[in-house]
Automatic annotation (TrEMBL), chain A:
Protein family membership: Belongs to the ABC transporter superfamily.
Highest taxon above the source species: Bacteria
Protein name as it appears in the record: ABC transporter ATP-binding protein
Membrane-crossing segments per the record: none
Signal peptide boundaries: none
Keyword Transport carried by entry: yes
InterPro entries reported for this sequence: AAA+_ATPase, ABC_transporter-like_ATP-bd, ABC_transporter-like_CS, BCAA_Transport_ATP-bd_LivF, P-loop_NTPase
SMART domains: AAA
GO molecular function: ATP binding
Automatic annotation (TrEMBL), chain B:
TM segment ranges: 12-29, 59-77, 89-112, 140-160, 181-207, 236-254, 260-280
Protein topology in the membrane: Multi-pass membrane protein
Cellular location(s): Cell membrane
PANTHER family listed in its UniProt record: ABC TRANSPORTER PERMEASE PROTEIN, BRANCHED-CHAIN AMINO ACID TRANSPORT SYSTEM PERMEASE PROTEIN LIVH
Species in which this protein is naturally found: Asanoa iriomotensis
Keywords: Amino-acid transport, Cell membrane, Membrane, Transmembrane, Transmembrane helix, Transport
Protein family per UniProt: Belongs to the binding-protein-dependent transport system permease family. LivHM subfamily.
Protein name: Branched-chain amino acid ABC transporter permease
Length: 264, 294
């Protein structure tokens, strides 16, 4: 189990971005993490994978534990070795390397099993096999997302953290990504799915969290989140189930209505 | 005609040295985004080590040992002076390497002393004569040795796990970290490689005669070479080094035809060539556009 407890993260010594976040990713589960732009989702993933340093960020309170052992002080490489891998926001593939070399770098901590993992990843993403000698920078957006996911799988993670994998993809590709996540999960890997596309995320997650300005404001099983009025209104764009009122902008109602509801 | 061919081949020999030195700069730049001005000191340290070690070990024994020791020196500089500066502006780090360069050369000069030293190379000024073309042995040796090292380097970056990790880190440092690549190891290795290359390059620059503390100036030619070849391009460093060497030696061959330019135009040739290339290709021969943003 990957556990976050009361986590506080500060950037540049002053900017408090996460304020007491707690979250559980049980082994083998799919958990969704929703939230508007700037809520702190990416920051949380950085804290989970040791990448805060690069951004002058630091954990000032709370803990991240993996099966009970604290990991928030570890280097990224040590965290990857323990089985936690991240697919970063914006794919971040190595554009100047071939597709296969990208995957090999993904297997950096798992050098003994690179061949076997390559077969596994090519099985999951046949399109990468076809393109394996191509420079990754020339792949389409969808192919780059597959590559980023495949690259993370090379380390054979037990916990996979995905930062907005559906961003900028056509609906058909979003479906494909969704199916692949399901398949990855079936083979035993737990997935923390950060998404703006709440419908997609909640359709495969068992549990979901909603993060708002650095705080977890909702923490419920996925089916109950799907039925939640606020989630329906602000993340699914469906309008609240119980009112026929015209849809209001997020900002208009944010202050009074939302806060009160979560307090109750 | 034979003087042209001789000038050209001499240029290849001299250019091989430039290529080795320039490769060190480029490897460090790609890994750390810092232009290291400590390369001249690394080179001089390597050459002085060879000149001392060659007495007990012989030239071929001394060269690899000196390269290894200079690699360790590079590693030490990275650990001691560069690593603590991570996150500072590249300019600041570059100035720090300049300070390190001066400091090391002061120390190394003690080991040069007042006598002229030499690296005890087996070539001296011997020549190979083909028809009426004379080729100096040391230039042939420099070229062959550089060719072997360059091939080895390219294989390293192409096929090995660490080489691949270094290319990945050069492409996107944070993404490489996220894959479990130790960026610290990448930094250290880049400095070690650059140190070894500087030692070998310097040794061939010093071969065939004696050297003194001013030998470090040779390493400065690597600067126009890397600008010309493209700051972030390994092939650029090789092609640029050879091109500068050839241009310089050809100008040296013919400069007495143009006495009004003075007797030393060949010295400024690398810079003129760099300017000309930059006019046509602002990022150097093989450089990528992104470099400009750094
Ligand atoms: N490197 C940084 N230095 C300072 N502040 C940062 C840094 N990265 C992010 N922030 C700030 O932290 C807050 C949370 O950012 P984060 O990227 O974690 O949000 P997010 O939920 O991932 O947003 P998005 O959906 O847009 O990706 C934002 O206010 C952002 O401006
Ligand atoms: Mg984000």
């Amino acid at each position: 189990m990957l556990q976050v407890r009361n986590l506080e993260v500060v950037y540049d010594d002053v900017m408090l971005v996460l304020r007491g976040v707690s979250l559980d990713l049980p082994s083998g589960a799919v958990v969704a993490l929703l939230g508007a732009n700037g809520a702190g989702k990416t920051t949380l993933l950085r804290a989970l994978t040791g990448l805060l340093d690069v951004h002058d960020g630091a954990v000032t309170k709370g803990s991240v534990t993996l099966d009970g052992d604290p990991i928030h002080g570890l280097r990224p490489a040590a965290i990857v070795r323990r089985g936690v891998s991240q697919v970063m926001e914006g794919r971040r593939i190595f554009g100047e390397l071939s597709v296969e070399d990208n995957l090999r770098v993904g297997g950096h901590t798992n050098a003994g099993a690179v061949g076997e993992r390559l077969d596994h990843v090519y099985g999951l993403f046949p399109v990468l096999k076809d393109r394996r000698r191509k420079l990754a920078g020339y792949l389409s957006g969808g192919e780059q997302q597959m590559l980023a996911m495949g690259r993370a799988l090379m380390a054979k993670p037990r916990y996979l953290l995905l930062d907005e994998p559906s961003l900028g993809l056509a609906p058909r590709l979003v479906d494909q990504v969704r199916e692949i996540i399901v398949e990855i999960n079936k083979s035993g890997t737990a997935v923390l799915l950060v998404e703006q596309n709440a419908a997609m995320a909640l359709s495969i997650a068992s549990h979901g969290y909603v993060l708002e300005t650095g705080k977890v404001v909702l923490d419920k099983p996925a089916d109950r989140l799907l039925a939640d009025d606020d989630v329906r209104e602000f993340y699914l764009g469906l309008g609240a189930a119980d009112t026929g009122a015209a849809r209001r902008s997020f900002r208009d109602v944010k202050h009074y209505k939302r806060r009160k509801r979560w307090l109750s | 005609m034979s003087s042209f061919v001789e000038g050209f081949l001499r240029g290849i020999g001299v250019g091989s040295v430039y290529a080795l030195l320039a490769l060190g700069f480029v490897i460090i730049y790609k890994a750390t985004r810092v232009i290291s001005f400590a390369q001249p000191a690394l080179m001089l340290a390597g050459v002085v080590l060879v000149s001392h070690l060659a007495v007990p070990l012989g030239f071929w024994g001394a060269l690899p040992v000196a390269a290894l020791l200079t690699a360790l020196l590079g590693l030490g500089i990275e650990r001691g002076a560069v690593r603590p500066m991570i996150g500072r502006p590249a300019f600041v780090v570059a100035i720090i390497t300049l300070g390190v360069d001066v400091a090391i050369r002061v120390v190394v000069n003690i080991f040069i002393g007042l006598d002229v030293r030499n690296v005890h190379d087996p070539w001296g000024l011997g020549t190979l004569v083909i028809g009426d073309v004379h080729i100096e042995h040391r230039h042939i040796a420099a070229f062959l040795c550089a060719a072997v090292l360059v091939a080895g380097l390219f294989a390293f970056f192409r096929f090995t796990r660490m080489g691949l990790a270094m290319r990945a880190a050069a492409d996107d440092q944070e993404a490489a970290l996220a894959q479990g690549v130790s960026v610290g190891a990448v930094f250290a290795l880049s400095w070690a490689l650059a140190g070894a290359l500087a030692a070998v390059g310097g040794t061939f620059a010093a071969a065939g005669g004696s050297f003194d503390g001013t030998l470090w100036l040779t390493a400065l030619v690597a600067l126009p070479v890397i600008i010309l070849g493209g700051l972030d391009s390994l092939p650029g460093a090789v092609v640029g080094g050879l091109a500068v060497g050839v241009a310089q030696e050809l100008v040296a061959t013919y400069q007495n035809h143009t006495p009004w330019l003075g007797g030393n135009v060949s010295v400024i040739t690398p810079y003129v060539l760099m300017l000309l290339v930059l006019l046509v290709r602002p990022y150097g021969l093989f450089g990528t556009r992104e470099v400009e943003r750094v």
